[in-house]
Amino acid sequence: TGEPGPGYWVQHPQYRIRVSLDPSVHCVTGSETAAYRNQSPDTLRSIAVYLRQNAFAPGVPRRQPVPITGGITLGAVAIDGRAVAAVTDRNAAMPITAAPNRRPEPGQYAVDGTVMTIQLIAPLAPGHSLSLAVQWSYTPPPSPADGRQGREGNVYFMGYWYPEIAVYDDVDGWVTDPYLLEAEFYMDPADYDVEITVPRRWVVGATGTLQNAAAVLSQSGRDSLATARRTGRVVRIVTPGDAAAAAFAPGGNTAMWHFTAHDVRDFAWGTSDEYAWDATRALVDSGGAAADTVDLN
Question: What string of DSSP letters covers 168-190?
């Protein structure tokens, strides 16, 4: 049947991410907490985390020339509320993305290109959980450096933008192939709770479902969305330009858009003050039950 057998297991992280974009300096700043339960039968003594934006850092192997943005700048890193420090005995002239002189000791991490390895103070036994907290920032590369993500003027599309726990499976253990650009990703299903702060009157499109429409859209904007979901017509929500203001809720200089997504492989988002936003719906047959609707934007 293709259904998993009784011994099947898969890891399933839960991410809570807070991120903001400052387009005046092209900077993305974020913090995340990832809950990670060890569903495997193995005891884990380390955690591997992808920092794929390091593909744009100096000295990192890659398959094609790209603009150098500096990659990810890490702030605080912690496991279960306890700070984790970077390996310290490295040549000061080495970039942070270079392979360290030695493996990190328990309570330390090391970054080797696009992968961060954290040695746990206490091994993670089967059925037990930990909480990983990370703060970071980076500069999205200008288009056309990478067809998956980047920026062009006031248009931003964010792919592989957050520190993501690597896959642990029953074939290779931690799967930590370096990301060299122009390759597919191997990732676990996960749950996401993401708050995205952008300049007010910028549209945000993202994986999952918008949870706070009343905080970012005016009544007329919300009415247009409701019409699209109810009727299935293609309804214009925002047209770029001066008239766009009518679709947004009043407020200060920024707005926070809150999205959630469950049991998905990844989370991506884009934002701009130049987006034209149309909405409609799709009817989904859920195994013979009553048809559900999916918003299309």
Answer: EETTTEE--PPP-SS-------E
Model pTM? 0.92
DSSP H helices, 165-264, are 213-216, 219-231
- Reading the chain (297 residues) residue by residue, the pLDDT tens digits are 889 888 899 999 999 999 999 999 999 999 999 999 999 999 999 999 999 999 999 989 998 889 999 999 999 999 999 999 998 665 554 556 666 667 889 999 999 999 999 999 999 999 999 999 999 999 999 987 777 899 999 999 999 999 999 999 999 999 999 999 988 889 999 999 999 999 999 999 999 999 999 999 999 999 999 999 899 899 999 999 988 999 999 999 999 999 999 999 999 999 999 999 999 988 877 665 555 666 777
Torsion over CA: 21, 27, 31, 34 (sign): positive
CA dihedral for 84, 85, 86, 89, sign (positive or negative): negative
Residue partners of 216: CB distance under 8 A and separation at least 6? 204, 210, 248, 249, 255, 256, 257
Q: Which contacts (CB < 8 Å, 24+ apart) does range 140-144 have? A: 140/26, 140/28, 140/69, 141/56, 141/66, 141/67, 141/69, 142/67
Give CA 201 to chain center in angstroms.
Answer: 22
Q: Which residues are bridge partners to 19 per DSSP?
A: 30, 196
Cβ contact 241:193 at 8 Å: no
- Gyration radius of the chain over CA positions: 21
Cα distance between residue 244 and residue 266, in whole Å: 30
179: nearest Cα among 140, 148, 207:
148
Measure the CA angle with vertex 212, ends 206 and 218; round to 5°.
100
